[in-house]
Structure to design on (167 residues):
């Protein structure tokens, strides 16, 4: 392979990584506006057919359960009362057609005293590229309330990270 061909192949690989990261970022960041607007089918289609969404309040597997969560009375009450899910930018690690990402999310709700943060969560995503593009395989959310599993979930994304734990 010539020097030009090697450079072109390296550039194509870098471009593919950037495009993959952009597609994954768009998928993750699309969840909040879709769930807050009640678009149940589009929320469910962010996951693979049998994908898992494991929130410490509820465990869902498959698109029917994901769609059902958005249509549920509880979720519809959040929407009609005023709520906003906000996702921070994800840190993405690519491995071919598999990827993981971590980020934070906030659920902000409207109360008689104004807007307040109901939940702040650590999020760990496992994603896979298929014929329809990138989809979530598994998303785990844990509330950041001092329990050790929440920062452990974030640290698990960084294989060489060692968490300091107070004595």
């Amino acid at each position: 392979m010539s020097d030009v061909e090697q450079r072109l192949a390296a550039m194509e690989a870098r471009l593919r990584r950037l495009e993959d990261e952009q597609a994954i970022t768009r998928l993750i960041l699309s969840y909040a506006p879709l769930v807050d607007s009640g678009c149940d089918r589009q929320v469910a289609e962010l996951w693979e057919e049998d994908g898992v969404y494991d929130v410490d309040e509820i465990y869902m597997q498959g698109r029917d359960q994901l769609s059902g969560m958005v249509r549920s009375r509880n979720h519809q009450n959040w929407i009609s009362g005023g709520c906003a899910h906000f996702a921070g930018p994800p840190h993405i690690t690519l491995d071919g057609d598999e990827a993981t990402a971590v980020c934070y999310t906030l659920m902000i709700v409207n109360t008689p005293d104004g807007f307040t943060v109901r939940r702040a969560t650590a999020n760990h995503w496992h994603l896979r590229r298929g014929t329809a593009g990138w989809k979530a395989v598994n998303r785990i959310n844990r509330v950041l309330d001092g329990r050790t599993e929440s920062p452990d979930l974030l640290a698990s994304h960084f294989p060489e990270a060692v968490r300091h734990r107070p004595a």
